[in-house]
Amino acid sequence: MSGKHDNARDRCRAGDIREGRRRRIRQAVGHMSLQEASDAALVVAIGRWRQDALAEAYRRHAGAAFGLARRLIGDREMAEEVLQEVFLRLWNQPERFDPERGSLRSYLLAQTHGRSVDLLRSETARKRREEREARETAARGIDLEREVMNLTVAEQVKDVVAGLPVDERRAIELAYFGGHTYRQVAVLLEQPEGTVKSRIRSGLKRMRESLVDAGMEVSWAES
Amino acid sequence: MGRELTHEEAVELLGAYALDAVDGEESDALERHLAGCAPCRAEVAGHREVVAFLAPVSALAPEGLWDRISGSLDELPPPLALPLPPPPPVPAPPSFSAPSPSSVPSAPAPSAPAPSAPAPSAYGTARRRWARPSQVAAALVAVAAVATIAVLGLTVADQSRRIDNLAAPARGTELDRAAKVALSQPAARRVQMRSPDGSLTAQAVVLPDGTGYLLDSNLPPLGADRTYQLWAVEGDSTAISVGVLGSHPGVAGFKAAGDAKALAITQEDHGGVVRSAQQPVVVGTLS
Fold first, then answer.
1. CB-CB under 8 Å, B50 with A208
2. Cβ under 8 Å to B: A residues 27-46
3. Which of B111, B161, B192, B284 lies in disulfide reach of A95, CB 3.0 to 4.6 Å?
4. What is chain A's alpha carbon radius of gyration, rounded to the nearest angstrom?
């Protein structure tokens, strides 16, 4: 019983700490230097109609988001539209970002990825994508390791990706950069759907462990 | 609605889901599972943190795009205006109420909102909607047109029930738990209410059936003779009281229409009012 109570107390204390942190963030927003503000504080400032806070969020994360959208969609104009939509959504609905659930970067990238995939799966984009993929595949093939090299990610990330088993790497690459569903990936790789599901998940877990081992900070929301 | 997933089935899909690689009914079923499974939600968030490392770190955003984005941002919202039914035809001190159709001011140009003009507003509309005052004006005309005694009667009747529901300050852990569960529902609509200067905020969540919870706020405590009152803009843009919150609001449950568009909180005399003559303290659109 005491263990349960301790746990409950710990949870309460954690809640108090989180609320205290939120309060401090709210108090700091009014007179903070945006360049030094945390992402969470930036979003609070965005919620208070500070365009300069959105500009700072854009400065920090728009490059990565655009690079991802461009890689997925191919079409520069459509990628710009996705980026514009993602940042306008942050402006209009800042409360959708929950700092307890992850970083602003991963939130914006997930939004960018989801919207890009929606476009990819739309009829109008499908043909364009197939043509592009045919060209790319014919030219050099696609491989996650090479994609990561091309995308100028950190050296540690390149090493982590290079260290993945090839089946896991291929499944993640086709789903993440190709915008395919896991069922489509299974067809493309001629593997059972269950196997592909498992490989994507195990590959992501392996990546996380390797990133942590390499000294990179990977936040993981508490359940 | 498709078949529900077992926890084991859901877990197998989490990696693919984090990569947007689950679609259709399977995705819907997984989202229903996620709504009630914190460990699964945490795992998805964790996978998304991992794949975020795959995005380029040195890519540059296209030139000119920020100018386009910033150019499409709205300025501060115009003064808030509750689209409540017009006041009864009795002498009353000048105060705000929904203008009659003939008094609806012309909409300012979207690019140049006039802060001093009482912009016609279905209050709490999304920020982007502030830039479309012509739509809002049309909505307000409709509000005034339908502000009949019949509507008002329904409002009063409904309000009394809702006041009962909220009469006791909601502090119980059950209510907190219910609010958290509601917040985790995929279909839940969240609203961040704010004052015009952004200093006061209140968060709420509304489920498709209209069940809602006021979650958190930084509204300053009022004197014993004053109370906060929560309003919902429903259906034809009529503002309906959904509860009297007391002088120091905490977590509270309420019932609004499932299609409620916005929420607002006003300060009123103790006991609340049927019709508000006050500007809302905070407003927000249901996302």
1. yes
2. none
3. B192
4. 20
